[in-house]
């Protein structure tokens, strides 16, 4: 394992204290530093301007790739505390979720000679991105159905049902729903209709667990309705790609595994680029394309979550007209494909060749919590593992260990060992 990773794991507390202090200073100075940074960049010749809308979740992979492609990055976001100005050439602070700011954002883009607005991974930014691009005449299309399906799971299910695409049985829980008298088919999943990132999700097998799950959703997303869906046991996958001129192009398939961890699903692991037999691969691709077409995806990036039941039947369980979190940052190293670069060029109206055949390197992201029983054993196990390439710890105690290998057998054996430590086997 690299020395820096070993030091990070052994001394994470002191490192976090120093990082938090430096971050506090930078946050205090952020607006002024962002202005100085912008002036410096204006004095340096850069490539074509691109405007990026940054929401509450992932976006730095897009910013980094734009800089690598020599684009002049104009960033618009609402919060200077995120310090994203370090990855852009110019930064402007305003509420990117407020549609009353659409005209201001479009005028800013024109003033900077940017012809398109991009975003990486925030469902709630889609209405603004669609509106700004329409004002700019960018030539990209985000249908009302695609935006609705991305933001609301009930809207997604309605679009799939109308098109005859298989999806899980579901219902919005009405206010005052009586768990004691109403019939409920367990097991089920309770989640926020307009949620993102697995926060508040619960698998429920009893009225008590459902009651607790409803409270969890309300705590995480008080503005959202609560939706319940039939829980289908089986393998789950994330299909990532772009829509180029109306054509679905798949770049990577990621196998996902979750386990129950109150008060939300704790992400257990993601396996990028797993080996799949031809039938499974075809089933996943067919399900993703059918779901995207049913929800009228026409431009931009997409991510579709698909679950396979015991009979190999595919169910679309989530869909969005955006990239899946920071997943595209791992696509080049595992498949040899430049998904973010192709997304940028497609949104700019350029011709984009179909992605080449995927490479065969795998990446495993394994998540746990620092305070979790068995987490110390996990840390000890991975500290000297030669497959470990990165270890990160978030402010909420989440720990992510990233491994890379050409051997799927080695990574799955590692998954089994770490699962056993955490009691998730």
Give structural notes.
The structure is a single chain. The chain has 13 helices and 16 strands. By secondary structure, it is of the alpha+beta class. α6 packs across α7. It is globular. The model is unreliable at about 260-265 (pLDDT under 50).
**Largest β sheet strand count, sense and barrel closure:** 8 strands, antiparallel
Under CATH at level 1, the class of the largest domain stands as: Alpha Beta
Low-pLDDT sequence parts: 261-265
Remind me, CATH topology of the largest domain? D-amino Acid Aminotransferase, Chain A, domain 1
CATH arch. level architecture of the largest domain? 2-Layer Sandwich
CATH superfamily heading of the largest domain: ATP-grasp fold, B domain
Total beta strands: 16
What Rg is obtained from the alpha carbons, in whole angstroms?
22 Å
Structural class based on helices, strands and sheet pairing: alpha+beta
What are the salient characteristics of this protein?
four-stranded parallel sheet, 3 domains, Rossmann fold, Dna Ligase, domain 1, 425 residues, D-amino Acid Aminotransferase, Chain A, domain 1, 13 helices, alpha+beta
Short description:
By secondary structure, this protein is an alpha+beta fold.
Draw up the topology in text:
Layout: H1 3-10, H2 12-42, E1 49-54, H3 60-68, E2 72-77, E3 90-93, H4 102-111, E4 117-118, H5 126-136, H6 144-151, H7 153-163, E5 170-172, E6 188-192, E7 202-204, H8 207-220, E8 226-230, E9 236-244, E10 247-259, E11 266-272, H9 278-294, E12 300-308, E13 314-320, H10 331-335, H11 339-347, E14 362-369, H12 375-382, E15 388-393, E16 398-405, H13 408-422
Parallel strand pairs: 1-2, 1-4, 2-3
Antiparallel strand pairs: 5-8, 6-7, 6-8, 9-10, 9-12, 10-11, 11-14, 12-13, 14-16, 15-16
């Amino acid at each position: 394992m690299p020395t820096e990773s070993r030091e990070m794991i052994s001394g994470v507390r002191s490192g976090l204290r120093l990082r938090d202090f430096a971050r506090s200073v930078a946050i205090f100075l952020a607006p002024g530093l962002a202005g100085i940074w912008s002036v410096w960049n204006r004095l340096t010749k850069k490539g074509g301007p691109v405007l990026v809308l940054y929401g509450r979740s992932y976006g730095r992979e897009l910013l980094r790739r734009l800089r690598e492609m020599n684009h002049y990055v104009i960033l618009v976001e609402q919060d200077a505390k995120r310090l994203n100005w370090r990855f852009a050439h110019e930064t402007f602070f305003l509420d990117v979720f407020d549609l009353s700011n659409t005209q201001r954002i479009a005028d800013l883009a024109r003033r900077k000679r940017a012809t398109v607005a991009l975003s990486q991974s925030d469902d709630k930014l889609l209405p603004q991105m669609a509106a700004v691009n329409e004002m700019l005449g960018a030539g990209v299309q985000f249908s009302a159905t695609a935006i609705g399906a991305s933001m609301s799971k009930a809207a997604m299910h309605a679009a799939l049902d109308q098109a005859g695409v298989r999806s899980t049985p579901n219902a919005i829980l009405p206010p005052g729903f009586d768990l004691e008298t109403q019939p409920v088919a367990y097991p089920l999943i309770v989640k926020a209709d307009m949620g993102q990132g697995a926060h508040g999700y619960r698998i429920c097998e009893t009225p008590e667990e459902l009651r607790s799950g409803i409270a969890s959703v309300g705590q995480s997303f008080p503005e959202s309705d609560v939706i319940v869906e039939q829980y289908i046991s089986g393998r789950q996958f994330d299909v990532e790609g772009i829509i180029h001129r109306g054509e679905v192009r798949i770049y990577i398939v990621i196998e996902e595994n979750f386990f129950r961890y109150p008060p939300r699903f704790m992400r257990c692991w993601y396996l990028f680029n797993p080996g799949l037999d031809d039938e499974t691969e075809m089933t996943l691709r067919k399900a993703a394309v059918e779901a995207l077409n049913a929800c009228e995806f026409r431009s931009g990036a997409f991510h579709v979550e698909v679950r396979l039941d015991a009979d190999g039947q595919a169910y679309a369980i989530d869909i969005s007209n955006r990239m899946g979190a920071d997943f595209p940052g791992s696509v080049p190293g595992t498949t040899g494909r430049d998904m973010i670069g192709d997304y940028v060029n497609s949104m700019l109206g350029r011709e984009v060749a179909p992605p080449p055949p995927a490479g065969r390197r795998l990446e495993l992201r394994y998540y746990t919590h620092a305070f979790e029983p068995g987490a110390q054993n996990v840390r000890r196990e991975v500290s000297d593992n030669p497959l470990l390439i990165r270890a990160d710890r978030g402010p909420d105690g989440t720990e992510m260990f990233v491994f890379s290998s050409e051997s799927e057998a080695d990574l799955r054996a590692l998954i089994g060992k770490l699962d056993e430590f955490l009691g998730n086997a």
